[in-house]
Amino acid sequence: MEAALPLQRSRFTARRLVHALLILAALAFLAVFLLLPLAAVFVEALRKGLGTYVAAVVHPEAIAAIKLTLLVAAIAVPLNTVFGVAAAWAMTRFDFRGKAVLGAIIDLPFSVSPVVSGLIYVLLFGAQGWFGPWLQEHDIKLIFAVPGLVLATIFVTLPFVARELIPLMQSQGSDEEEAARVLGASGWQIFFRVTLPNIRWALLYGVLLCNARAMGEFGAVSVVSGHIRGLTNTLPLHVEILYNDYNYAGAFAVASLLAFLALVTLGLKTFLEWRYGTELAARAGRGH
Amino acid sequence: MTLAINRLSRRFADFRALDDVSLSIAPGEFIALLGPSGSGKTTLLRILAGLDFPDAGALDQDGRDLLRVSARDRGVGLVFQHYALFRHMTVFENVAFGLRVRKRARRPSKAEIADRVDKLLKRVQLDGMAQRYPSQLSGGQRQRVALARALAIEPELLLLDEPFGALDAQVRVALRRWLRHLHEEMGLTTVFVTHDQEEALELADRVVVMNRGRIEQVGTPDEIYQQPATPFVFEFIGKSNKVPVRIHGGRLQAGDQRFEADALEGLADGSAVAYVRPEHLALSTTPLENGWKATLRHVYLSGSVAHLELEVPGLGQTLEAELGGEEAQRRSLQSGMHVTVQPRHLTVFPLDGKSGEPDLARRRVVHPRYGQAALARWR
């Protein structure tokens, strides 16, 4: 017994040492790859003083970029919310031919490089594209204009809401909806009184992720934008332009707005997970 | 409210869930749909509720074609197996739901709704629970909320899917007797699905035994237990011994024994299968001429009943017999004893010459005649 004790104690300390080292390594990794860059964004943004920072943010071109980013998100996010709910409803409440195909299509934007999806729209709707001549005839401008930005953003953010809802609705089943039907509820009554309340937190969560991506999207939007200052520049594109102009302070100032958006999203996401963890738990075992 | 179910069939891909099912349900009846899983009982219930539709057949309620009426308009009360309570609503809101979603012209006023919900909650003994959420209730309480919610729309027909399946054994017995009283007090017509024969036999006025999408037998619990119409009912309900026999010249040949009986007149010679319930086997400890010679292998006393395992060399199989525990002790039955076994009556199904399947149309209940002397001795 007495002989065994020191041995156990040394094993115990060794294990604690390993724990500590592993945790330290993880923290160091996080610090170098996540916290340091985030801090750098704000430090660089404020390097030339608060005045320069404010000037960069309230510059007319920056204001236009902010407005455009908000506009694109304001169109893309609601559309994808409606689509996501409808797709999740169809996928979890009905059996039909091509269900697996629909599931794959919903996931497509996750697997395609955003640049490719932007290019597809240029090839379809650009001046030399398939529908280009017809669009020009009718004086409709999609590419290098706001509608193109909206289209590309919708494509890239399409899966977020549906992917959030499908596992939850699958696990909840349709018993409650059937119960409501037998009790005399109409289709809309079932949706608004039974289905929607049951999925509301997962839906909000999905919308949040969708919005973050819609505002932060660079690749697809970059291809269809045309980079016309004050007209077709969203925030991420504006950052790039400022950076290419060697206006580092300005670039970081505008970038800090996006970083701030990310922090707010993260905060809300954490709050939702903490408050409604059990309702969101159905999503577990899945990742994107 | 008379419900006429006429030749319903329902297929799911290549699985026959319902196969030509007909049944008539009289007003005020309490009907059990009893069968193993996959027997079609839940499909039938869902068709009655309007949540599923048959491929063929008719469903008629007092002359109204129910298949043309959507689930929404049928006004049927349905209690789901797992209750399907609205988890984001309080008990009160759950029960009020069916009234709240009515079209304005038929919707009761707020005060009226509150009044009716209160009365229903009292009726299901849940007053004081109105503001709780389903997750805060026990299984038995949830089941009663589901019942109150179904009753709120004042259905004539109440459907229950495995209503006691998810409950503890003790709660289950109390709740099913209570449900039977409720059924009578409210003048409902009730159909419930169960795989538990004890539940079906205890509760129902009539039991519908289902197997593989077909109805095997419809009858009172007593008829179902005492006079099973098919081999399946014999095997599914209660216990029974299955004995291969031969019919030969109006006599029943079973192993080394021949039984004489009137019921066999007119049956052609051939193979048959006989069923006899354990409690219909009589034992004699003094050797008798008529009856199977057997060795008592085990005596299991379980409370008031003694289960006996009998090895019958003449049949080449083991039979199970049952008698009162007190009687078993009085006659000091012990394993290793030699006994003579006499079936009091058997149900015989001649096998079809071609298919080798039991022929239900030629089913006979056989009361073997034993000598007077033998009869006198074993009671």
From TrEMBL, chain A:
Complex formation = The complex is composed of two ATP-binding proteins (CysA), two transmembrane proteins (CysT and CysW) and a solute-binding protein (CysP).
Q: From which organism does this entry originate? A: Tahibacter aquaticus
Family matches, as Gene3D superfamilies: MetI-like (1.10.3720.10)
Q: Which domain of life is it from?
A: Bacteria
CDD domains reported in the protein's UniProt record: TM_PBP2
> Where, by residue number, does the polypeptide cross the bilayer?
21-43, 63-89, 101-122, 142-162, 202-228, 248-268
Stretches assigned to the ABC transmembrane type-1 domain: 66-269
Topology with respect to the bilayer: Multi-pass membrane protein
Does this entry carry the keyword Secreted?
A: no
Pfam families referenced in this protein's UniProt entry, alphabetically:
BPD_transp_1
Name it.
Sulfate transport system permease protein CysW
Any one GO MF term held by the record is: ABC-type sulfate transporter activity
Please give an example of a GO cellular component term from this record.
plasma membrane
Provide this UniProt record's keywords sorted from A to Z.
Cell inner membrane, Cell membrane, Membrane, Sulfate transport, Transmembrane, Transmembrane helix, Transport
The record describes the protein's role as: Part of the ABC transporter complex CysAWTP (TC 3.A.1.6.1) involved in sulfate/thiosulfate import. Probably responsible for the translocation of the substrate across the membrane.
Quote the subcellular location field of this record: Cell inner membrane
Automatic annotation (TrEMBL), chain B:
- Could you tell me which Pfam families the record lists for this protein? ABC_tran (PF00005), CysA_C_terminal (PF17850), TOBE_3 (PF12857)
Classification via InterPro entries: AAA+_ATPase, ABC_SmlMolc_Importer, ABC_transporter-like_ATP-bd, ABC_transporter-like_CS, CysA_C, Mo/tungstate-bd_C_term_dom, P-loop_NTPase, Sulph_transpt1
Q: Tell me the domain of life.
A: Bacteria
Q: What Gene Ontology molecular-function terms does this entry list? A: ABC-type sulfate transporter activity; ATP binding; ATP hydrolysis activity
Residue ranges annotated for the ABC transporter domain, each copy included: 3-237
Q: Alphabetically list the UniProt keywords.
A: ATP-binding, Cell membrane, Membrane, Nucleotide-binding, Sulfate transport, Translocase, Transport
Name one cellular component (GO) term. Answer: ATP-binding cassette (ABC) transporter complex
What the entry lists under Gene3D superfamilies is as follows:
P-loop containing nucleotide triphosphate hydrolases (3.40.50.300)
**Nucleotide-binding among keywords:** yes
Listed name of the protein: Sulfate transport system ATP-binding protein
Q: What is the lineage of its organism?
A: Bacteria, Pseudomonadati, Pseudomonadota, Gammaproteobacteria, Lysobacterales
